[in-house]
Amino acid sequence: MLYKDLLQETYLAIVANKARSALTILGIVIGIGSVIAMVSIGQGAKQSITDRIEESGANLLTVSPGQQRSFGPISSGQGSAETLTMEDVESIKTITDVEEVSPESSSRYQITASGNNTNASIYGVYPEYEVVKEVTLNSGMFIASSQVSSSAKVAVLGATLSEDLFGEEVDPVGQSVKINGITFKVIGLLSETGSGMNSTDDAALIPLTVLQRYLSGSETLSSISVKVADQDAMDQVQQNITDALLINHDIASEDDADFSVRSSMEMVEMASSISSTLTMLLGSIAAISLIVGGIGIMNMMLTSVTERTREIGLRKAIGAKSSDINKQFLAESIMLTFIGGIVGIIGGWLASYLITKFSGTATSVTYYSVALAFGVSVVIGVVFGYYPARRASRLNPIDALRYE
């Protein structure tokens, strides 16, 4: 059988029953579209987290209380203890290639202003926080060293928190807010950073001494951020910090450490691992619809074989080979998945765009996911179309011609 004739017969067979063919193709469209959309959400989340971490600087180290323990791609235990103090900060400052050190303590408190009330993250920081975390001001000024030493009750607000308390059009600088019942003067407004790790949009920054003295009542730190002068010295500085804190905490072995020192690149790798697991999970869930679509194709092809039994018998009687019949039905199955794959790719791309546009969730459609989804659809056409095609090719021509 010539390929031109094969394509023509395939086209005629598909359009002969447009409604049934369209419903069968729809199953593949939903499957392909779902896979692309779900994988794009996972990839978008991975890229968003990676970008946020990298924005904070490739030469950033973070010291957290508590030893970090990993369970597959998920880590736990970090930040669960209260072991970091200002003594550790002073020790870190003496280490070679350490450029800036930012001690931080945080918790959530009620904050009120202009009759509005919300629960927000409150960070106690030093002036070095602005440089280490690379935050930018929209208006006003950042916390000064004199305000830390004098325990001045001043605050710098995140963009979202400012909108919640004062509205979108009001510059909060010069206004007053109450944090846990204590009045603070707003001296600065941070630029919007967007969602992600270390976002300060829904937070307020105050002097660390004020948080420790008037809010938390504790002198321990939530974390210590360290900016390294030379990126090539990251590993050495990380080890030096570990050694210094082991001495401070009177701990003999690194395995027994009550703190963790992690680089920004390690955070990127960890976030990528978690996001890859999420992407795989979402893709696997969506792939179920592809299998359902494949079963729909098999069902349609078996019905088609039954309806066209006499046609098959006639073709064999006038000289068609079993391989010709097999190719014909297999081509129909592949054509259905091919059409469904093309439409599904367009639908998945459109769905990803709409998700980003209306929900604000970052998505990223990769050529790899498109190629994978389309390749799987063709494989499904072959796998689920093989049995009906083989069944048609093995029909006895005499029995087929007698079929009622």
Fraction of residues in helices?
Answer: 55-70%
The helix tally amounts to 13
Please tally the β strands and state the result: 12
Cα distance spanning the termini: 27 Å
Order of helices and strands: HHEEEHEEHEHEHEEEHEHEHHHHH
Residue-averaged pLDDT: 83
The biggest beta sheet is recorded as:
6 strands, mixed, barrel
Biggest sheet: strand arrangement = 4-5-10-7-9-8
Estimated share of beta-strand residues: 15-25%
Protein structure class: alpha+beta
The radius of gyration is 32 Å
Shape: elongated
Unreliable residue runs:
69-80
What is the element layout, followed by pairings?
Layout lengths: L2 H14 L1 H38 L4 E6 L3 E3 L2 E3 L9 H8 L4 E16 L2 E10 L2 H5 L4 E4 L4 H5 L4 E4 L1 H8 L9 E4 L2 E9 L12 E5 H9 L6 E6 L5 H15 L10 E5 H44 L1 H9 L4 H38 L7 H27 L3 H6 L2
Parallel strand pairs: 5-10, 7-9
Antiparallel strand pairs: 1-11, 1-12, 2-3, 4-5, 4-8, 4-11, 6-9, 7-10, 8-9
Helix pairs in contact: 1-11, 2-9, 2-11, 2-12, 3-8, 9-11, 9-12, 11-12
